[in-house]
Amino acid sequence: MNTIKQCIDKKNKTIFSVRSTSSVEDALILMRENRVRAILVIDDEQLVGIVSQGDCAIKVLLPHRDPKTTIIKEIMTSNPLTVSLANSLEECMAIMVHKHIRHLPVLELTKVIGVISIGDLVKNIIELQGQQIQFLETYIRGHGA
Fold first, then answer.
1. Which domains, from first to last, does the chain contain?
2. 118 and 94 in contact (C-beta within 8 Å)?
3. Nearest one of 127, 119, 86 to 103, comparing CA atoms
4. Whole-angstrom distance between the N-terminal and C-terminal Cα of the chain?
5. Cβ–Cβ under 8 Å, residues 55 and 103
6. For the whole model, what pTM was predicted?
7. In CA terms, which of 51, 110, 137, 140 is 20 to 30 Å from 34?
8. In the prediction, which pLDDT does 47 show?
9. CA-CA distance, 117 to 12, in Å (whole number)?
């Protein structure tokens, strides 16, 4: 059973975040520049929320609010679900499926150390399956007729 630690160790260590007082425009620019679909909201080194492109579209653009004057605190998901390095990939996948979310902040005690996405989990699971298939193929060839 692989843990989030093994998955997050393969990722870039950069954490993309804004403050709760930042504008939605600032958040969208950060997401665009770094090709991410969600960023954390961190105030004084404490995780206070998460905001996604979907949040921005549904809560700001569709109601015709101004992204320059709308602040993140108004649209973010406060106190998001989090996972630790010890959680398994299967646990994280179950949380994401059950809660209909695509990103989970990863904490070590109260310190944010990364974000795990559904894409990260799928990629890792596919890699594991590939390794298992290769092992089985080698085993069969070595023990075949």
1. 4-142 (3.10.580.10)
2. no
3. 119
4. 32
5. no
6. 0.85
7. 110
8. 97
9. 13
Here the tokens at position 115 are 């974000």
Residue 94 · residue 71 · CB < 8 Å: no
| 112: CB partners within 8 A, 6+ apart | 15, 17, 40, 42, 47, 105, 106
Rounded-to-integer distance, Cα 129 and Cα 49, Å: 33
* Residue found by looking up tokens 């590939």 in the block: 130
Query: Measured over all CA atoms, what is the biggest interatomic distance in the chain, rounded to whole angstroms?
Result: 72
Q: 53-110, pLDDT tens digit by residue?
A: 999 999 999 999 999 999 999 999 999 999 999 899 889 999 999 999 999 999 998 8
Q: What percent of the chain is modeled with pLDDT above 90?
A: 68
Phi and psi dihedrals of 11, rounded to 5? -95, 160
